[in-house]
């Protein structure tokens, strides 16, 4: 495909922060932070003090809740791995509140800058060459790092008030479904962390899209809240899927079993669900054949995505023996949804 952008123009819009159709990143961030409630203002003040002192804070993003620490403090980051039981070679995403903060962390190329200006704050994590300031522990020993600007007032205020990039994986025990509300975070890890900032239910319910921008072609390392097609339209360029083992190794997180509910999960079309078995649960947008003991039917894929992790936690406590979940089509948010379902099924 041809290159749609004039490099000079792009670099200029980055350097001088010329407004795009959505306004500048800085203006969008200021607008979010201005919408903080008085209660969140107080909680994010406290959270920023904890982050600066090397502690952990759980906070809402637009995707899932994150478990944050100062990304530049290897000891603080170690606590994240310990709390989650996360393998130490699975790198963390660094959450930022400005492009200037990002420039101190990674080498930004013009295409990556364009994506930041277009989609930040938002559910897009960009993998770029890391600068030395990022401890090896945060990067899982890699020479690259993932950066993302989350899109909630609380997350942006926490980062901005601490003045530090915040490393944050999803705030669940490693391998479990990601939390999409504060109560789930409290139940899962609340006993061992000093502060959970409550921002209600998350807007998207699935994690950010992770794209490797270190090479000549963007590579999709994890489908997520921002559809691949939307990025391709913006870049006027194909986003490649990881083809070979070398590329897959670049995304260590994809090696591990994830999102697993405590009871088995099977992927199925509605008409292929059991007609007479007992104690099975259904999850999908269509109506299943047979009679499940619990069924959760979503309006569309967006609602399926938003509610998936909560539904998995609900169903594992429902008395059902097995979950049948409908496999969505691989387009838009359906791609990320399908990815999470396949991993939850352990396939
Ligand atoms: O929406 C999200 O991204 C949430 C919220 C809290 O921001 N965070 C999240 O983090 O999902 P986590 O740690 O659960 O997933 C991070 C993913 C993993 O698959 C990891 O392997 C990948 O990003 N990743 C991080 N740094 C990377 C790097 N340098 N190269 C390749 N993949 C990287
Ligand atoms: Mg996770």
TrEMBL record:
L-threonine binds at residues 95, 148, 168, 208. This is Threonylcarbamoyl-AMP synthase. NCBIfam families: L-threonylcarbamoyladenylate synthase. GO terms for molecular function: ATP binding; double-stranded RNA binding; L-threonylcarbamoyladenylate synthase; tRNA binding. The lineage of its organism: Bacteria, Thermotogati, Synergistota, Synergistia, Synergistales. SUPFAM superfamilies: YrdC/RibB. GO terms for cellular component: cytoplasm. Gene3D superfamilies: DHBP synthase, Threonylcarbamoyl-AMP synthase, C-terminal domain. InterPro entries: DHBP_synth_RibB-like_a/b_dom, Sua5-like_dom, Sua5/YwlC_C, Sua5_C, T(6)A37_SUA5, TC-AMP_synthase_SUA5. Transmembrane segments: none annotated. It is found in: Cytoplasm. Its main location: cytoplasm. The keyword Chaperone does not apply. GO terms for biological process: regulation of translational fidelity; tRNA processing. Keywords: ATP-binding, Cytoplasm, Nucleotide-binding, Nucleotidyltransferase, Transferase, tRNA processing. Belongs to the SUA5 family.
């Amino acid at each position: 495909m041809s290159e749609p952008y004039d490099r000079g123009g792009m670099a200029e819009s980055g350097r001088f922060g010329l407004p795009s159709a959505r306004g500048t990143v800085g203006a969008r961030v200021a607008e979010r932070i201005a919408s903080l409630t008085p209660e969140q203002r107080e909680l994010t003040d406290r959270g920023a003090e904890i982050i600066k002192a090397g502690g952990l804070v759980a906070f809402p993003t637009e995707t899932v809740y994150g478990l944050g620490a100062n990304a530049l403090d290897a000891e603080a980051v170690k606590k994240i791995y310990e709390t989650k039981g996360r393998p130490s070679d699975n790198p963390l995403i660094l959450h930022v509140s400005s492009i200037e903060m990002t420039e101190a962390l990674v080498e930004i190329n013009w295409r990556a800058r364009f994506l930041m200006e277009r989609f930040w704050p938002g559910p897009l994590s960009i993998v770029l060459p890391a600068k030395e300031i990022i401890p090896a522990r945060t990067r899982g020993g890699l020479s690259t790092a993932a950066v993302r600007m989350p899109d909630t007032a609380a997350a942006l205020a926490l980062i901005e008030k601490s003045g530090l990039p915040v490393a944050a994986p999803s705030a669940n025990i490693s391998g479990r479904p990601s939390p999409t509300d504060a109560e789930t975070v409290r139940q899962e890890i609340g006993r061992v962390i000093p502060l959970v900032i409550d921002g209600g239910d998350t807007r998207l319910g699935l994690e950010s899209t992770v794209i490797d921008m270190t090479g000549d072609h963007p590579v999709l390392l994890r489908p997520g809240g921002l559809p691949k097609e939307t990025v391709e339209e913006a870049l006027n360029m194909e986003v490649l899927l990881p083809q070979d083992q070398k590329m897959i190794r670049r995304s260590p997180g994809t090696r591990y079993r994830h999102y697993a509910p405590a009871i088995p999960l099977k992927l199925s079309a509605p008409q292929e669900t059991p007609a007479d078995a007992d104690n099975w649960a259904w999850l999908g947008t269509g109506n299943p054949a047979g009679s499940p003991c619990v069924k959760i039917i979503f309006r569309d894929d967006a609602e399926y995505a938003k509610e998936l992790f909560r539904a998995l936690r609900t169903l594992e406590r429902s008395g059902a023996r097995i979950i049948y979940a409908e496999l969505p089509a691989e387009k838009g948010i359906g791609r990320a949804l399908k990815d999470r379902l396949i991993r939850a099924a352990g396939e």
